[in-house]
Each structure stands twice: as structure tokens, then as C-alpha cells.
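Hi there, hope your week has been kind to you so far. Please have a think about how the structure follows from the sequence. I've dropped the whole record in just underneath, so have a look:

_____
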Amino acid sequence: VQLVESGGGFVQHGGSLRLSCKASGFDFSSFRMGWYRQNPGEEREMVATIGGYVGAIKYYADSVKGRFTISRDDARDTLYLQMNNLKSEDTATYYCYVDLGSGYWGQGTQVTVSS
């Protein structure tokens, strides 16, 4: 199982970024996928999750509702996170996650939002 995030970077307050997570080693379309984020010294928190079927239910942290959109392309085994109207409090390392019975994490991609 491998999860590889990309798309992080430095952006100004109010800007946008799109994160991607390329998955391999499991049946991507069948599993709920999630984005989490973490800052040093803090607990990792859920940002958004999406179920593994057509019309899948999406969940968002209250702090990102209306600004972030999670989506998936099962043909490309890729998970996305569109982040709009970014705020300084969104600064964190963002991780892709899947629970296959055991949990798997990507290596993370850094997002830094200037105030």
C-alpha cells in the first residue's frame, strides 16, 4: 500500500491550493479515503473524508466546511482536496489516509498560508 501526496506549497491568505493523493496497492474504489492535517506538537485532525462508492457521503471538519472540497477519481486511483479561501490556521502538514483494517498514511505535504 502506498499513498503519495502532492500539491502543497506556500500561498497567501485567501488563496487556493489543490492537493492530490495517488494511491496504489489496494482496491482504491472500494474504500473510504480521508485527508488529515497536523502541526508540530498538536494532534492530527480530520479534515475531510469520502466514501468508496458512487454518491459517497462526504464529511468535513467544521473549520473547513464551505471552503474545502474532497473528491476522488477512481479511474486514476487519486484522491483530491480543493482548498479555497485559505486562512493562516490552515497551515499544516496534510496527510492522505485509508483504513484497510490497518491504517495507512502518506508522507504528507506541507501547506503554509501567510497572514
The two ends are 37 Å apart (CA to CA). The chain is about 0% helix and 55% strand. The longest strand covers residues 17-24. Residues 1 and 102 are 11 Å apart (CA to CA).
